[in-house]
Queue: 3 jobs
Job 1
Amino acid sequence: MPPIAPVRGTHDLLPDASAAWQWLLDTHRRVAGEHGYRLADTPVFEHTELFERGVGVGTDVVDKEMYTFADRAGRSLTLRPEGTAGMVRAVLGAHLTQHERPVRVHYVGPMFRHDRPQKGRYRQFAQVGVECIGERSPYLDAEVIEVGWRFLRALGIDDVTLQVNSLGDPADRARYRAALRAYYEPLRDQLCADCRRRLDVNPLRLLDCKRDAAHAERAPRLEDSLSATSAQFFDTVLDGLRDAAIPWTRNWRLVRGLDYYVDTAFEYWHSSLEGAQNALGGGGRYDGLAEVLGFAATPGIGYAFGIERLLLIAEQGGSLPPSPPAAEVVVCSLEPGQATAAAALARGLRDAAVRTVLDTSERKLGAKLGAADRLGARFCVLVGSDEAMAHEATLRDLRERTQERVSAAELGDRVRRALHPTPDAP
């Protein structure tokens, strides 16, 4: 019988990679927290209607990529393909905006999309993101973009370009959709099958198609459909980015893939990736989303980054921190009779905040020392009958190839000082 393999488009987080994963999560929590964002979380599955109404029927996410199933009561549920719709539901459903405006939250968790798997892109993937819900201000747009920019800088990821655009208000978008349909309709027979469908249901997505890129280059520009109010709003956002010394590129073809975006849209591109389809992350303003979900009109803006893609770029750039060893000390009993004494020594080392692995196996000493070395341990504590009777241990330094007898009472302090010497220590 062959072994069971992981599902295509998924991957396992194994111990050697977990330190980098945790480093990224800690970095995002710190940077978001410095701007007043607090952690929130939502279920990984929601009523399908949340995404059909929020993300939009006609988007690739809803039409092609969602994992949807019926529960035992026959209700249609969907594994969340993105985080914003669920977070807006959670914040407004709990009436948080009645107590503070805006509500600033950050999140981390798995998302699910049936997409074509490739390096850095999975069908189950994880995102970190922020949402700022309850207030409409171009200065908040600039702040959210700056949070993402500072996050990337904190990860040591350089060579990033910020792509920005304004999608305008709903009336602006309606004018622009009409202009796109008028331009593309005579070209319908020249379009790929996906774009012929998009022309009818979601013409803004025509600008993202690589196969029909030549047509998109000559298409009407969204900026020509903006009202004076929308243009002024966006100019104020750009002024905020200038004040924060964040360079940006205006990308008139940037429309994002979800229907709930209005006004400001943005993506962070990296020089090693291929344009908008492979952005590190992005987001935008979604002032109409709350109403679509059945709540009172409530503005909001946010972003999301794919964790796997960020780690891939950080690794390529050499900014990942080194993975710490699995253990700093391995305590080894030399015979079964010393197992209790060895366990007590390991317990004392852990009380001294030393990462300690206990080895009470019946393997020979050479095998135990080899295992300790593979774990990356600096020290091996050996407990034989003599040591157990004297309430001592033999402390072997695997780096310096030295060893000494140490009392059990002094072992924790002795090891901690050796691992973390202070500047004035002798």
Note: The chain is about 40% helix and 20% strand.
Job 2
Amino acid sequence: MTHLGLNSAVAAAERGFQIVCYDPDATLIRQLNADQAPVQEPQLLELMAKNKSRLEFLSDVAALKSCDVIYVAPDVATDDQGNSDLSMLEKLLSVAFENTSHETTIIVLSQVPPGFCRAHGRPGRPLIYQVETLIFGQAIARALNPERYILGLADAAAPLPPAYEKFLQGHGNPPLFPMRYESAELAKIAINCCLVSAVSTANTLAEICEKIGADWHDIIPTLKADRRIGPYSYLAPGLGISGGNLERDLNTIIALADQHGTDAGVVRAWVGNSQYRKGWPLRMLGEYVFSKTKDPAIGILGLTYKENTHSVKNSPSVALIRQLTPYTIKAFDPAIPSQPDWHPNLTNSPTAADAIQDSDVLLILTAWPEFKDLNLTEIAELMRGKTVIDPYGLLNRMQMQQAGLQHITLGTEPNFSQAC
């Protein structure tokens, strides 16, 4: 009942299914039965409450015996190099096999490297790999309305177990793509590689825009109008790849290429590009703040790696904070508090206004929707300085200039107001 499993279970209950939600952690189960979720997602708590009669949160493995279909879906932790720790998945998969009948269909929903499912199958037991396409901040919405189902099978030509097929059809009957285990396991990685390619391209060209007077935000609509690229392409510039999942997939491809003697130079370039992009806020501080203000007070809004989540895995904000040890920092995030071990002079602010108060520079490093509604006149009055580093362009550029604030954002030249 971590992020992937909990959101998948709640979405299935919303679709009308009776769901047994098992986790060996009895403390976590007590929290869930007390309507406390360990993760943050839009609609999660509301749908947990709405579907309480369809959701049983249990730590007793005996409850699994009543299930026709079992999803094994723990979050797979990664280290700083993107290596996966599959130990919890392996333990729970054994629990599922050992506490169910031979007719029960077991599905691995957690992301695994190619070869995992074939190596962990058991004779006479139906084991299926279903590619998850979870996006932090959109987990419920995507689980409720999947674009398609990519299914890895021991025999791709064999029919699906009836109970499992009925369950999939209950989610709007999206298209099914059955294939052998290894193809499905690699399909998930292929999807993320395509996303990284788009992100890396956008970030590289956006930086050129900052230097030559072009505006990347003018260019994005022209690319989305091209059928070969498409309206849903990941083209917004950002601060590198974060969250852990994409990094894991790049590391997997590099490892497979090294193992089999194939070329992964382009993937290594994506990794290098991501590391470079994470340094953008520090470069902007050096150019526009540190060179002009001695010992500046720094305000930071946003700590999570993206909006609508509690995760700080490879967060650009936290990475920056760790590099600013000589300076005084106040930080605010609507989902999580800052941690003392990140920085010796870091204060956790209770509100955005407190983090802004008396700062020489303000950085908005997570695109939380509420930050878009900040009053720019109040920001100018609260700040001691006039520089706002807003990589995602949450604040209105024209209004920033009218408020006398310098606006530095990705993909375009900094906006210098008259006051700056």
Note: The first helix runs from residue 3 to 14.
Job 3
Amino acid sequence: MRAKPRANGKILEIGGFLPEKTQTLSNFAEAVTPETLSVFLQQLASRPEPQTEGYENLLIVEAAQTLEMPFDDLLQNYRKIKPVQDGNDSSLDLQNLFEAVVSEADFLKMEIKSRPVIMAPWLKQGDLVFINAPRGIGKTWAVHSILVATTRGLKIGSWKAENPVNCLLLDGEMAGDDLQSRIGRLTRTLQNPKKRLDILSADLMHQKGFPTPNLANPGWRLSLYNLLEKSDYGLIVIDNVAALSPGLDENSKQEWDPINQFLLSVRFLSIAVVVIHHSGKDPKRTSQRGTSAHEDALDTSITLRQPPGYKQTDGCRFLVEFTKARSVCGDKIKPFIFSLDDHDDGSVTWRVESRSFDSNAAIALLGNGIAQKEVPIMLHIDKATISKIKTKAIDDDLIKKEKRGVYKFTAKGRRQLGDYDISNF
């Protein structure tokens, strides 16, 4: 049972600071949450009025009783995050924007430096990339592999780390010992890195008494931006949205916008950003979980999913597909299968296979009554390819139309493909 807050009836005489009906510290403490306390303290810190002095401690004293947390813990949590100040920049004279306008003729004559390629063909300096995948598929292994390859100038299939850069991994969910084990296993048999890989681990930060990283918190975004601005990193990997933005409504564009603006501000530092996120509930589809605004500013979006016919015994093995690529196309971004091989010495190495496709799988799905519109989703093949396979299967007397968009085996088709195992699709 929560301890009752002290009856401190002092009114906060700061217009608009606390919501209506919570104008006393006691009332505030009755309804406080860690999130509202964080927001209120940031607002309070940004106010110039001298009468706000001392309110920070009063707020934390009252909140500590309601939240049943030691005062010193709360004080440490909220003072280690530099608050965001008022976003208005009085130094900006809007009339001077005319000086920033460039005519087409002048624009085409400008010498604009080409951005270096970090990981060919899809990652350049300053790019913004999302990698999404269902839970448990092995996306963290893939991301760690990308980081290890990037710092050593290695290849992952047709991907080549052409310009190794210093990297920062912001990890929000792995235990420190597990993270250490994974990086160790990936690097055990590799050459020494050419560039640094630094780790900012939520678990290790917690052990050292730092507050948990939270990109939904404007103070955290500012602190991280200040770190990156003073650093020599070329790539930051954020793993992952859910773990590093607790309480964020992923379906809300409005709540995502401040984080999106933060990511854009990092790209303006010429730092590439790779964000890891979960796929939607339907594992057969490519969409990320939450608002479509996640993809608005992206240069590249990559989806990881289990390949057709995947079995649990296959371990870390998934199909890599580009669902958005702003400046790359064709064979350079063909899907491929990524997997990890375990070795007796505890090391792991990555392996890349060309994607193979069995047309019999499509015929078997159609013959078993799976609607034609669902087959491309299940097999991760374009609709035109399935249509061609269907037409040929009809001509070969393997399937026949039952109703619009639905087919079934003919006697010949059932003899040839009736035993085809479609349970893994």
Note: The longest helix spans residues 253-267.
